[in-house]
């Protein structure tokens, strides 16, 4: 009986110690997250910006939340890429962004694009424009019940001072910039960039 009690208390005590250790480790992890040194900049888009199409075309922003500034943020991201630029994007129809990608390609940045096959075949996406400029584009082989629905872009993944990523729900379209509820997060978090890089490279190899 005495031996049984010791064993029971032994197990209970061990479990309690383990639980405390796990909680301690968890709280340490949480504290680390709070002290995260990386930057995160979210951008939000709303249907209230429907009238901002004309502000984008005329380069005349109407207010601080004008879609014009959202587009400029993305263009700046592309312009600052120095070595690589990798996009996995369901849809791209913005002429300004297409031009910025071609400019990056022409100045020697290694640009790669993964797009959804059905979207890429839609003339509105003008993938031919990017292809004819020399930017390699890949899509999934199977189109039945498959969609490349990702929306992310990262650059200079091997260069700590310049690597960046943006991801979210936003397609690179005027519709997304002005007439949807959408969001996108910009970050230099290297752990996130590494995970998106792995996903991108897997798809690039598979397609
Ligand atoms: Zn506006």
Automatic annotation (TrEMBL):
Question: Residues in domain Phospholipase D-like?
Answer: 74-204
Please list the GO terms describing molecular function.
RNA endonuclease activity producing 5'-phosphomonoesters, hydrolytic mechanism
InterPro entries in the record: PLD-like_dom, PLD_domain
Q: Which domain of life is it from?
A: Eukaryota
Might you report a single GO cellular component term?
mitochondrion
| Pfam families, per the entry | PLDc_2
Keywords for the protein's UniProt record, in alphabetical order: Hydrolase, Lipid degradation, Lipid metabolism
Output the GO biological process annotations, alphabetical, semicolon-separated. Answer: lipid catabolic process; piRNA processing
Protein family per UniProt: Belongs to the phospholipase D family. MitoPLD/Zucchini subfamily.
Q: What is this protein called?
A: Mitochondrial cardiolipin hydrolase
What is the scientific name of the source organism? Pyrocoelia pectoralis
- Organism lineage string: Eukaryota, Metazoa, Ecdysozoa, Arthropoda, Hexapoda
């Amino acid at each position: 009986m005495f031996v049984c009690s010791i064993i029971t208390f032994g197990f209970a005590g061990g479990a309690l110690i383990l639980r405390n250790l796990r909680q301690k480790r968890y709280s340490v992890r949480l504290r680390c997250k709070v002290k995260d040194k990386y930057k995160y900049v979210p951008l939000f888009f709303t249907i209230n910006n429907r009238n901002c199409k004309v502000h984008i075309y005329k380069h005349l922003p109407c207010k601080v939340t004008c879609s014009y500034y959202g587009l400029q943020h993305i263009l700046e991201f592309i312009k600052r890429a120095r070595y690589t630029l990798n996009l996995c994007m369901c849809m791209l129809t913005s002429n300004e962004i297409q031009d910025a990608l071609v400019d990056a390609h022409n100045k020697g940045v290694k640009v790669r694009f993964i797009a959804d096959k059905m979207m890429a075949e839609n003339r509105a996406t003008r993938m031919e424009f990017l292809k004819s400029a020399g930017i390699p584009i890949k899509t999934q082989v199977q189109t039945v019940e498959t969609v490349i629905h990702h929306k992310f872009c990262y650059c200079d993944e091997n260069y700590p001072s310049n690597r960046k990523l943006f991801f979210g729900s936003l397609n690179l379209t005027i519709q997304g910039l002005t007439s949807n509820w959408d969001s996108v997060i910009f970050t230099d978090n290297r752990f996130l960039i590494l995970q998106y890089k792995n996903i991108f490279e897997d798809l690039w190899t598979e397609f």
